[in-house]
Write a structure and sequence with these properties.
It is a single chain. This protein is an all-alpha fold. Strands 1-2 form a two-stranded antiparallel ribbon. Strand 1 and strand 2 form a beta hairpin. The longest helix has 29 residues. The N terminus is likely disordered. It binds Phenylacetyl coenzyme A.
Amino acid sequence: MRSSGQIEHGAAGVAPSGGETAASAGPDPREAEFQALIDADQRIEPRDWMPEAYRKTLIRQIAQHAHSEIIGMQPEGNWITRAPSLRRKAILMAKVQDEAGHGLYLYCAAETLGVDRAELIDLLHEGRQKYSSIFNYPTLTWADVGAIGWLVDGAAITNQIPLCRCSFGPYGRAMVRVCKEESFHQRQGFELLYALSHGTPAQHEMAQDAVNRWWWPSIEMLGPPDTESTHSAQSMAWGIKRFSNDELRQRFVDMVAPQAVVLGLTPPDPELRWNEQRGHYDFGQPDFEELRRVVGGDGPCNRQRAAHHLKAHEDGAWVREAAAAYAAKHAATTAAA
Ligand code: FAQ
C-alpha cells in the first residue's frame, strides 16, 4: 500500500515538531539528543531517532536527486548512437551508466528512511516529486554533450561535494563515490569541448552555441536565490545543506569562468568579470522566472522527459516481475534446503 501522504514534499519544510510525541506535553528529550549530534557534527544514522520533518526533508531531497540522475540520462543518452567516434561512444556510455548507478545509490539511501523506491517513482510520475530543471532542455548538437559535462556536471559537483558531509550518514556516504564519478564526467565534458573549440571554425561555433544555451540554465539549476529558498535555512540548521544556493552559485561561477578562458569560449554574460575586491567573479542576474517556469512544468522538454520515463517504466514491468518471481523461487528453494 502506498503511504505517499507521509512523504509528499509539501510538508517537508515544516519545523521539527518533536516527532511522534508531538501531542504529548513538553519537548521530546530525544529531540535534544538529536540536536546535540547535529551540533557536534556527528552523523545521524537510519536507526537513530530523528524529527519527522528532518526525515521528510531528506526523503524529498534525496528522491529529487535520484530522479534527476535517472531523468538526466535522457538528454545525453540521445547522443549515444550518434557519438562521432568509438572512443567518444565508449566514454558517453560509461557516463550514462554512471548516472543510472547514482540514481540507484540514492534510491537506496532514501529507502533507509522507510520509503519504498516504487512509491517514490509513483510520486515522480504523478508530478508530486520533482527532478532538476536542467534536464528539461534539449541536446541539439554533439557539443551539448560537452556542455552538459562541463557545466551541468560542474554545477552538480559544486553542490554535491558539501553533501558528502551531510548529517544523514547514508546520503553523505553515497555522495563520496558519486562525486568521484562526477569529476570524471566534468573532465570529459571539458576535454570534448576543448577539442571542438580548437577544431574547425564550424566545430568552434558549435561549441560556443552549446555554451550559450547551457550557461544560464546551469547557473539557475543551483536553486532559487536565497531570499526565495524555502528550505535552505532549516536544511542548513540540520546539516543537510552546508552552503546556501547563492553561495554555491558563486563557487560555481568562480570555478568555470577561468576554465572558459582555457577553452577559448565566451560565456554569454557581459557582466562576468573578476572583482579584485571581493576575490570573486561578478556575474549577471540569472533568469529566476525561467527557473520557476521550468520547475513548474513548462520547460522545453518537461512533457517529453516525463512521458519517456513513464513508458520506460511500463515497458520494464516484466523485468521487475521476473526478478520478483526469481527471488521468490530462490527463497522457496533456500527455505526447503
Ligand atoms: N530544479 O528551498 P529550495 C546532476 C525546488 S544531479 C527543480 O532552495 P532546496 C547529475 C526545490 O526542490 C542534479 N526544482 O530547495 C547529472 C523546492 O521545491 P519543493 C540534481 C528545484 O531543496 C549531471 C523549491 O524549488 N541535484 O545534475 C531546483 O533547499 C549530468 C525551493 O527551493 C540534486 O538534486 C531545480 N534546479 O535546494 C546527471 C542535489 N532548485 O521540493 C546527468 C541535491 C530548487 O519544496 C547528467 N539537492 N528546486 O517542492 C539539493 O542540493 C537541493 O535540493 C537544491 C534545492 C539545491 C537543488
